[in-house]
Amino acid sequence: MADINPPSEDHRDIFDLDTDDTIQDNGRRSVRYVRNDIQVALIAKNLLGIDKKTQAQLQDISSKGLRVSAEEKLSINKKITVVLKFTDGRRFNIKAKVVRQSSSNKFDYGIKFEERQNGLGDHLLETQTDLLFK
Predict the structure, then answer these.
(1) Which of 14, 41, 53, 70 allows an S-S link to 83, with CB 3.0 to 4.6 Å?
(2) Chain-wide mean pLDDT for the chain?
(3) How far apart are CA 58 and CA 67, in angstroms?
(4) Which residues contact 23 (CB under 8 A, 6 or more apart)?
(5) CA gap 35, 111 in Å, rounded
(6) What is the tens place of the pLDDT at every residue in 62-90?
(7) Distance (Å, whole) CA 12 – CA 6
(8) CA-wise closest residue to 112 among 51, 64, 70
(9) Which option is the CATH number for 36-127: 3.30.460.20, 3.40.50.1580, 2.40.10.220, 2.70.98.10?
């Protein structure tokens, strides 16, 4: 029978996992697609409760949210509706919230969908023509 001994102290360090709590996780768990064939509009209610539509340029998108450059300033934590229109005519109206603003460009925003959009994720995958991911 073979003699099984624990690894020497010299070899233990390759198995040590760093469990330092200061390591930050960006929280992204979905594939982010880079697309230029999707039109984006952001709809938010103004103080009078009237819908205000803002056009936006899509930076990247996933089934959980998107990053856009908007034509107008948006407030963090503002609840909005994201309207996505694909070139094949398919349209998605998704409830979402503005969760971050770029520190380098005040008109770049991170937007999180209220619920995971599996149908959108499937459509993104089905209509993807260029393999550009983030």
Answers:
(1) 41
(2) 81
(3) 6
(4) none
(5) 16
(6) 889 999 999 888 999 999 999 999 999 99
(7) 9
(8) 64
(9) 2.40.10.220
